[in-house]
Design goal:
single chain, 327 residues, alpha/beta, Rossmann fold, 2 domains, 6-stranded parallel β-sheet, 6-stranded mixed β-sheet, 11 helices, binds beta-D-fucofuranose
């Protein structure tokens, strides 16, 4: 009885071995990789486009057997739980878009202990955790902030009485909020712009919060004498535009506005003259991400950070660019 069972296992293993060799597959002995993706949420057009891009790329890629997708609803606890489930399910690679930068050490260590490589998509984690993930594919948020800062310096260089600025920050503690702020003020300070940051609050990257924070700004400071609103994404900028209009002011004219992302809705607001500068953030890196996932699983060496390509757009370019926008 015992002998028979062992013989059965032997034959099975032999068969499996033969099929794995003869199958010409990706070499993992199966029909492709199982990938777990813990996404931030669905807070913006950028995010939805990013989710669509990753899902479509996984679907179209023969090297990927399955993408297990979890929407973290902008809550770190949900993302941590998703990563733990991926570990239990023994996925081949974990892709994490961390909602905030801190608080990942334990769960990343658990993935490492389980021998599952982690790829960061889009957002990053704090430098202390650098050894606990293999690579990050996403935007250079500091550079995006610098681009916004550069335009501000050029636009307001001759503003004799100083440039008065309002800032709508993204999710508190998130990499894009931290870095878009840092890059922006780094340039203003380096170029010696005479400015005052009148107020700066988080709108959590949503239109709803962007609007309500802008309403508070209007009540607290008024809008007379405010030169610029720097919104860390389209949704918050679009929400703020509504609040500015409801307060009886003309967005894009009475107050100049910068947004980051560059959705079709953002460009449309630009075409309508309601905002003045768009720093592009590109969510369509799904296919590139699948390449990275396959490389990482195969143990190939990859760069620690791969930035995606991004541009900037001034008012005279909004109309021509609008039809090209993919999200
Ligand atoms: O700019 C914003 C989204 O992490 C780059 O997240 C992303 C940001 C994007 O909510 O719209």
């Amino acid at each position: 009885m015992l002998k028979k069972t062992l013989a059965g296992i032997g034959a099975g293993a032999l068969l499996f071995g033969l099929s794995a060799c003869g199958g010409g597959d990706d070499g993992d002995g199966g029909d492709g990789l199982i990938v777990g993706f813990a996404q931030v949420g669905a807070e913006s057009a950028w995010r939805t486009a990013n989710t669509d891009s990753v899902k479509a790329a996984a679907e179209a890629d023969d090297r990927i057997a399955e993408l297990k997708f979890v929407d973290g609803q902008q809550e770190q606890d949900r993302q941590i739980e998703a990563v733990r489930n991926f570990i239990t399910q023994q996925v081949d690679v974990i892709v994490l878009a961390p909602v905030v930068e801190t608080g990942w050490t334990d769960v990343l260590q658990e993935a490492e202990d389980a021998g599952i490589p982690v790829v960061l998509a889009d957002r990053g984690v704090e430098a202390a955790d650098e050894d606990l993930y293999v690579t990050r594919l996403g935007s250079d948020f500091t550079e995006e902030g610098r681009k916004a800062g550069q335009w501000t310096v050029e636009t307001f260089a001759d503003d004799a009485d100083g440039t008065r600025i309002l800032e709508l920050q993204g999710t508190t503690g998130s990499a894009p909020a931290n870095d878009r702020k840092t890059g922006f003020f780094e340039v203003l300070d380096a170029e010696g712009l005479d400015y005052e940051l009148v107020d700066s609050q988080s709108g959590d990257f949503t239109a709803e919060n962007g609007k309500s924070v802008m309403e508070t700004f209007v009540t607290t400071h008024g809008l007379d004498g405010i030169d610029l609103l720097y919104a860390h994404n389209d949704e918050m900028g679009l929400g703020a535009i509504q609040a500015i209009e409801e307060a009886g002011f003309e967005p894009g004219v009475d107050i100049q506005i910068i947004i980051v992302d560059g959705s079709a809705a953002g460009f449309q607001a630009g075409v309508d003259g309601k905002l003045n500068y768009i720093v592009e953030c590109n969510p369509a890196f799904g296919a590139q991400l699948m390449d990275v996932v396959v490389q990482v699983e195969a143990g190939e060496s990859v760069e620690k950070f791969t930035p995606v390509e991004e541009g900037v757009f001034t008012a005279d370019q909004f109309e021509a660019e609008l039809p090209n926008r993919q999200f």
